[in-house]
Design the sequence.
């Protein structure tokens, strides 16, 4: 416990861990607890301030971690990324199913996804990408009510034992820095 009796924060010391040292460094990812605990996750499927993808476009780019804005969709960093540079392409309109997008939304999501890949290649030099939309809770959508396209950069060897055994990702950069680097590299003729 801390010295201040009113402060309930418990600080762990390296020597406090039981057992024989195992030769591995401890890698702490406390930011993941917000995701595990459901912080910022909508409590229902309605549009509005309760949906982070409806709320984000009304914030400044820095506060909302918005990288670029298009006419019908925008690009934002994933708050709980699989890798550095993990982006989401979201329509502004609160819509759950890809088949319900308007032709303008389909075109904007597609073009922003293409540009996102180009920008991430320029900034991070990944060897590949995972692109995808999880449609519905059963398909793994964390926020099923507001469609979003994942753009996940991949490198050889980026899947090691940590995600499998420890449910942990090691990210070498804070989100604000990632947003700034990607926004600076976004083509000026495509900035909203």
Sequence:
């Amino acid at each position: 416990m801390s010295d201040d009796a009113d402060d309930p924060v418990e600080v762990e010391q390296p020597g406090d861990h039981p057992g024989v040292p195992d030769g591995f460094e401890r890698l702490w990812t406390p930011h993941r607890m917000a995701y595990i605990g459901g912080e910022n996750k909508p409590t229902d499927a309605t549009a509005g301030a309760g949906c982070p993808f409806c709320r984000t476009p009304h914030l400044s780019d820095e506060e909302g971690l918005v990288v670029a804005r298009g006419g019908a969709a925008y690009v934002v960093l994933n708050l709980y990324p699989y890798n550095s540079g993990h982006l989401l392409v979201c329509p502004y309109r609160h819509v759950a199913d890809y088949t319900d997008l308007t032709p303008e939304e389909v075109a904007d999501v597609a073009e922003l996804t293409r540009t996102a890949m180009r920008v991430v290649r320029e900034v991070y030099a990944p060897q590949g990408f995972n692109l995808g939309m999880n449609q519905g809770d059963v398909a793994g959508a964390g926020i099923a009510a507001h469609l979003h396209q994942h753009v996940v950069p991949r490198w050889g060897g980026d899947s090691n034992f940590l995600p499998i055994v420890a449910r942990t990702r090691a990210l070498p950069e804070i989100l604000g820095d990632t947003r700034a680097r990607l926004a600076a590299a976004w083509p000026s003729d495509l900035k909203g």
